[in-house]
Design a protein that fits this description.
Rossmann fold, DHBP synthase, alpha/beta, 364 residues, 17 strands, 11 helices, binds magnesium ion, binds adenosine monophosphate, 11-stranded mixed sheet, 6-stranded mixed sheet
């Protein structure tokens, strides 16, 4: 259990950023402290990326294992030279197209970056966030800032300041509170140190958008067992998990909904409180049943589904369900990132519904 400290909260209106608040937060970072701040993906927990001791504080506060490296945030693309050994031409090209934004590039680590940031590795993950508060903070602090998601390790990522405080109050120095995040899922992690550029973690920038620039893009699809050394540790098979046990249902149309309904009612009859994570248009199918229904958004608006994915899982946890059955949202666009997070929230428990058959492929 990390030492308790007083966690201050400063509210900032993103439309009128209070420069004094930013200066205070920047001073905390420069003094080696921990500051949670909004990014467009989720809230990050930041420390000076050049200060090994400050970065160690992130691992303690999050109870994060040392083998899980951190993403270094930059105010602008030119800062790449402060943190990376060399910048391949492709990185400049991708930065031009996608930064500021939810794309993280894995590049050769510069000697300025202490090994604790990269979990001992020779590569460093970097991105320029688009959120104006994050940008101001980085610019005023004039430091590259290591910032993983501001939650306890393995738990749901925080999309508002209240989520951060629920996990980290008493463990960090400051939270910049500025409402809900826009994208709602973490950045896409793309390795440029592999032969073919490889998506290590799907996220806010889609595979299709990357392919349009890069042509060939590989996806590292295999969920990695906790005991193996993960290429990208956000890829551990159990991560982003709610307290309740979750099962992911993949399949099409009403066949999928029927399979979920059948299982939900079976579990209900055995005395369980069952929650369903659905698309907006699924709701009428389940109406009147003794189940806790939560829609993340319409199937045609995966941006909204991604934005409310973690809040919806938190809402189901707050409703004290024993079990969550979540529907899949396909793999087009943000669907891939949503499937990735739900698969990990399920710890690999995925049911594939084909025709009228449900096949349990993994887990227990
Ligand atoms: P978080 O911001 O909490 O989602 O965590 C950052 C994630 O970025 C890690 O869990 C990894 O998946 C990824 N990451 C960070 N650094 C590297 C790296 N050097 N190589 C590969 N993946 C990385
Ligand atoms: Mg995380």
């Amino acid at each position: 259990m990390p030492n308790m400290k007083e966690t201050r909260v400063i509210h900032i209106d993103p439309e009128h950023i209070n420069t004094n608040a930013i200066r205070e937060a920047a001073a905390v970072l420069r003094a080696g402290g921990l500051v949670a701040f909004p990014t467009e993906t989720v809230y990050g927990l930041g420390a000076n990326a050049l200060d090994a001791e400050a970065v160690a504080g992130i691992f303690t506060a999050k109870e994060r294992p040392a083998h899980d490296p951190l993403i270094v945030h930059l105010a602008e693309t030119r800062w790449l030279e402060r943190v990376v050994r060399f910048v391949p031409a492709l990185a400049w090209e991708l930065a031009e197209r996608f930064w500021p934004g939810p794309l993280t590039l894995v590049l050769p680590r510069g000697p300025q970056i202490p090994l604790i940031v990269t979990a001992g590795g020779d590569t460093v993950a970097v991105r320029v966030p688009a959120d104006p508060i994050a940008q101001e903070l980085l610019r005023v602090a004039n430091l590259p800032v290591a910032a993983p998601s501001a939650n306890r390790f393995g738990c749901l990522s925080p999309t508002c300041a209240e989520d951060v405080l629920a996990d980290l109050a008493g463990r960090i120095d400051l939270v910049l509170a500025a409402g809900a995040t826009r994208v709602g899922v973490e950045s896409t992690v793309l390795s440029l140190v592999t032969l073919v550029p490889t998506i290590l973690r799907p996220g806010g920038v889609s595979r299709e958008a990357l392919s349009a620039v890069l042509g060939e893009v590989a996806v590292c699809a295999k969920p990695i067992g906790d005991k193996e050394m993960a290429l990208s540790p956000g890829t551990l098979s159990q991560h982003y998990a709610p307290s309740a046990r979750l099962i992911l249902y993949q399949g099409q149309g009403t066949t999928l909904l029927k399979a979920m309904c059948q299982e939900a009612m079976l579990q209900h009859e055995s005395g369980k409180r069952v929650g369903l994570l659905l698309a907006q248009e699924d709701l009428p199918f389940f109406s009147g049943l003794p189940l806790i229904l939560r829609a993340a958004g319409p199937l045609a608006r995966l941006d909204l589904v991604a934005q409310s994915l973690f809040p919806t899982l938190r809402a189901l946890d707050r409703a004290a369900v024993d079990l969550i059955l979540a529907r899949d949202f396909g793999i087009a666009g943000l669907g891939l990132a949503i499937r990735d997070r739900l698969t990990r929230a399920a710890g690999g428990r995925v049911v594939h519904v084909e025709g009228s058959l449900a096949k349990f492929t993994c887990g227990d």
